């Protein structure tokens, strides 16, 4: 048996300031349970909804129990030391200045979704601190979080996108004025359109507009989440997802078997309620696709991962429809750099169906991060 000193110390960071706080806690609970205690020494770091960092109390609940969502509550205040010499976390005792107690960590697993987690912000903090971490870096995280820049980068790499318009004024400044979508653009996009905040998740702030009379309200709803509003033509088709993992030892990225999200009758699109509240969807893992369709999805998923400069892991979401000539039309909807990570989430399920168990997946992600080491330019 290895001694404690031989173990890799992993700080699993969860919770956070985004609307996906609870789901992050649930994901982290599963990740922690999967880390082999013989090899890993786990430090549980919670970020409260107001942004406070704590070493989570031992009784911190990370599962949904009796319908109650978990939330980071108490714990010892802790802070990430920005000076790379600190190598980790400073424990802050109440009432004192930064205390001497330092917890060195070998690697951080930020199991955080959405703003301040999946958008490059915590990644920047970790790079300043010189601590290796799981997943994409600052740029890929920020670019994948922003639907406008995701589309630009994918398009520039020959990965086709559905028609869309970002609301900007004549100077190019972001401006959530519905009149900026002129008649020609309305004609071109056609109805329905999906009106979205450019940087959000969990379908928050998104409206499917089927009548232009409802468009101004949809723009206001999206703008309440993000000042940058994107209007997308509807892309008809099946919703297909594919997991990507960085290659072992720096090799080419690998794609999982794809899965399909099947909306049950009565559910029009994959909105917030369908994602978390209703029993509105079925997951088909693997998706019922032809071998050619599977290959096309996997190839585009790997290309998207590289186009956005992702690291570690990503889930690439597609629409699979039919082109006017009857051939398949595969369009990437979005790329998630820290997809849901509960055992029933799509990403781990797709990898399980590909032959990578949940503990193997977690192990591989941590090992990749440790191997790559701190990212700052040397
Ligand atoms: N252009 C589109 N055409 C058809 N359906 C769409 C389109 N954009 C979004 N949707 C529907 O809305 C859901 C949420 O949109 P998405 O862009 O994935 O937002 P989020 O980042 O919040 O998950 C999708 O899963 C899909 O059901
Ligand atoms: Mg989505």
From TrEMBL:
- Which HAMAP family does the annotation name? Dala_Dala_lig
The record's annotation in Gene3D superfamilies points to: 3.40.50.20, ATP-grasp fold, A domain, ATP-grasp fold, B domain
Among InterPro entries, the record links this protein to: ATP-grasp (IPR011761), ATP_grasp_subdomain_1 (IPR013815), D-Ala_lig_Van_CS (IPR000291), D_ala_D_ala (IPR005905), Dala_Dala_lig_C (IPR011095), Dala_Dala_lig_N (IPR011127), PreATP-grasp_dom_sf (IPR016185)
Q: Which residues take part in binding Mg(2+) 1?
A: 317, 334
The answer to whether keyword ATP-binding applies is yes
Binding residues for Mg(2+) 2, per the UniProt record? Answer: 334, 336
Q: What is this protein called?
A: D-alanine--D-alanine ligase
Per the record, GO CC terms?
cytosol
Task: Give the enzyme's EC designation.
Answer: 6.3.2.4
Write down the chemical reaction(s) this protein catalyses.
2 D-alanine + ATP = D-alanyl-D-alanine + ADP + phosphate + H(+)
User: Which keywords label this protein?
Assistant: ATP-binding, Cell shape, Cell wall biogenesis/degradation, Cytoplasm, Ligase, Magnesium, Manganese, Metal-binding, Nucleotide-binding, Peptidoglycan synthesis
Q: How is the cofactor bound?
A: Binds 2 magnesium or manganese ions per subunit.
Q: Where does ATP bind?
A: 147, 194-196, 202-203, 232-239, 333-334
The enzyme class is ligase
Question: Where, per UniProt, does this protein localize?
Answer: Cytoplasm
Q: Name one GO biological process term.
A: cell wall organization
Q: What cofactor is this protein dependent on?
A: Mg(2+); Mn(2+)
Which residue numbers delimit the ATP-grasp domain?
Answer: 151-367
Pathway it acts in? Cell wall biogenesis; peptidoglycan biosynthesis
């Amino acid at each position: 048996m290895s001694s404690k000193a031989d173990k890799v110390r992993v700080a699993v960071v969860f919770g956070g300031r985004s609307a996906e706080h609870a789901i992050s806690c649930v994901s982290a609970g599963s990740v922690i349970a999967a880390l082999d205690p013989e090899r890993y020494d786990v430090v549980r770091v919670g970020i409260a909804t107001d942004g406070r960092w704590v070493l989570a109390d031992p009784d911190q609940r990370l599962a949904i129990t009796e319908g109650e969502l978990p939330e980071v509550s108490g714990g010892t205040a802790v802070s990430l030391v920005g000076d790379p010499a600190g190598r980790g976390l400073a424990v802050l005792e109440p009432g004192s200045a930064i205390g001497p107690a330092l917890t060195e960590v070998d690697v951080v697993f930020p199991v955080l979704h959405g703003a301040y987690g999946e958008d490059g912000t915590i990644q920047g903090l970790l790079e300043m601190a010189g601590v290796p971490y799981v997943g994409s870096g600052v740029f890929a995280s920020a670019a994948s979080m922003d639907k406008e820049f995701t589309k630009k980068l994918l398009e520039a790499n020959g990965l086709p996108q559905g028609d869309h318009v970002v609301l900007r004024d004549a100077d190019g400044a972001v401006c959530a004025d519905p009149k900026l979508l002129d008649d020609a653009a309305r004609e071109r996009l056609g109805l329905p359109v999906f009106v979205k905040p450019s940087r959000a998740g969990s379908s928050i702030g998104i409206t499917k507009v089927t009548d232009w009379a409802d468009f101004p309200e949809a723009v206001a709803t999206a703008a309440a989440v993000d000042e940058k509003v994107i209007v997308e033509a509807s892309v008809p088709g099946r919703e297909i997802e594919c997991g990507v993992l960085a290659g072992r030892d720096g090799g080419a990225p690998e794609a999982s078997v794809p899965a399909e999200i099947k909306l049950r009758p009565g559910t029009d699109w994959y909105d917030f309620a369908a994602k978390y509240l209703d029993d509105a969807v079925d997951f088909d893992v693997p998706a019922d696709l032809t071998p050619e369709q599977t290959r096309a999805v996997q190839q585009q998923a790997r290309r998207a991962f590289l186009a956005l400069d992702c690291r570690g892991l990503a889930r690439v979401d597609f629409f699979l429809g039919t082109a006017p000539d009857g051939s398949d039309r595969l369009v990437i909807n979005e790329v998630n750099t820290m997809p849901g990570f509960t055992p029933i989430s799509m990403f781990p399920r797709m990898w399980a169906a590909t032959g990578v168990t949940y503990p193997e997946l977690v192990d591989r992600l941590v090992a990749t991060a440790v191997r790559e080491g701190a990212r700052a330019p040397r």
